[in-house]
Amino acid sequence: MILTIETYSFTISSKGNCDIIDITGYIQQIVSDNLFLEGSALIFVAGSTAGITTIEYEPGLLKDYPDFFDKIIPQKQNYEHDNTWHDGNGHSHVRASLQGASFTVPFKDKSLILGTWQQIIFVDFDNKPRRREIIVQITGIKE
Fold this sequence. Notes:
Blueprint: E1 3-14, E2 19-22, H1 24-33, E3 36-45, E4 50-55, H2 59-72, H3 80-85, H4 90-99, E5 102-108, E6 111-112, E7 119-124, E8 130-142
Antiparallel strand pairs: 1-8, 2-7, 3-5, 3-8, 4-7, 5-6
């Protein structure tokens, strides 16, 4: 068997303001459709005001997670970025930096190895709706 590296991408539209989107299905589909048996998938968002992580995608946490960021990195605060660019999204950059732009998940037998209540999420921290490109780079063994 030969180790293969392939890169894919898809785009999603988000509402901004800590919009959380479950992208687990997109990642699973890429692994399955491209006949990967075992390996890992690196998920990366191209942009400096968004992030990728895992969470239990349920209504309580979909409220708690944005509330957490509002407490530690409030929107209504002076940011030097805003003084420079006047776009009002200084908080978005700081939040995204803390969150991180990528996540790696292993897979085996064409299935992502995630916990029972664990989903891969995209979080848009920007202050306006955006269209985002998600890059998925798979390193693994194919059929």
